[in-house]
Amino acid sequence: MAEASKHFTGVALELWPAANFTKTKAREKISLRALAGEVHGAKRALTQILLLALGLEVLVLAGPFY
Description:
Blueprint: H1 2-7, H2 32-36, H3 42-62
């Protein structure tokens, strides 16, 4: 028991359904686009992030040559 207590620091739960438990129909999945809606300026912001990342990569890779 002492060895088990060295390695176990959490709590264990045993769960089971009640007698009156009934399964429900699966819910319809929601896409991220439907959840967030149309984000204004997202394309421009992502383009800027990608261009800045590309520029930084070029500078980092060119650094050892100078």
